[in-house]
Amino acid sequence: MSVSARPVVFIHGLWLHPDSWAPWVGLFRERGYEALAPGWPGVAATVELARADPESIADQGIDDVVDHYARIIDELPEPPILVGHSFGGMIAEKLLGQDRAAAAVAVDAAQIKGVLPLPLSSLRATLPVFRNPANKHRAVSLTAEQFRFAFGNAVSEEESAQLHERWTIPAPGRPLFEAAAANFSPHSPAKVDTGNDGRGPLLLVMGGRDHTVPEAITKATLKQYRGSEAVTDLIEFADRGHSLTIDSGWREVAEASLDWLAERGF
Q: Which of 3, 14, 159, 212 fits a disulfide with 155 by CB distance 3.0 to 4.6 angstroms?
């Protein structure tokens, strides 16, 4: 009797098309996993189509995205491993806390409820959305310059421009507004069950030069889990920025994630 491969679901964050996970999907499949990278609800099949129809993803909130991936998970033969980046990392944390996943890797995960630090670089990185309150219900794109600050500050200007051209798509503003108001809302969609003792293991991956999710946010996130007996680990890549999953150093991060999964029995 054949044994089915463990499913791995990759979850992208704001401004990146799900196809940006393609190198990770290929590597994980080589290592024996059944990897897939479905997009957020409303995200078109290609970068070009997503750019041509930004309203298709506008006004999608955190709960909408969580419910979307929960339905995908329900169709899988067993609880998957989740690998998320940025807001995708937050979504992975929420789904893990709901016991919908066997384990999760959250790379430079967005701020969850209870995390208080709000560094200036994070405010600047998200200013393209917050400068207009109407953006809560719109999809917003990043210019090459804005992407350079928010994602590509730790790579060359040329590589940052190439990544922007290849992978960026409009992103809904609503998740950012929801996360910003999280600590003032008792029922915030950015709330994660960090006290779940029975959940699977979680790896937080931190880029030390990340402007969008600076290390202060990831370290504060780790503290939110200190009340749980479940495994929560942290790996830091001191010289990496928010583009660490898609830039020329992606494989180092992916290999570290695979090593951690192996150590945890996955």
A: 159
Q: Is there a domain that residue 1 lies in?
A: no
Query: Which has the higher per-residue pLDDT, 82 or 184?
Result: 82
Structural domain boundaries, residue 81: 7-263
**CB neighbour list of residue 116: distance below 8 Å, 6 or more residues apart:** 183, 220
The amino acid occupying position 73 is: I
Which alpha helices (DSSP H) does 41-199 contain, by range?
A: 47-52, 62-74, 87-97, 120-130, 144-150, 157-167, 174-180
Q: Which of the two residues, 1 and 215, has the higher pLDDT score?
A: 215
Distance, in Å, from the CA atom of 243 to the CA atom of 239, rounded to the nearest integer, reads 11
User: Which pairing describes strands 232-237 and 103-107: parallel, antiparallel, or unpaired?
Assistant: unpaired
Domain annotation covers residue 2:
no
d(CA 98, CA 74): 13
Please write the tens of the pLDDT for every residue from 192-231.
999 999 999 999 999 999 999 999 999 999 999 999 999 9
> The domain that contains 217 carries what CATH number?
3.40.50.1820
Given a cut of 70, whether residue 2 has pLDDT beyond it is: no
Residue linked to tokens 């041509």: 52
How many distinct structural domains can be found in the chain? Answer: 1
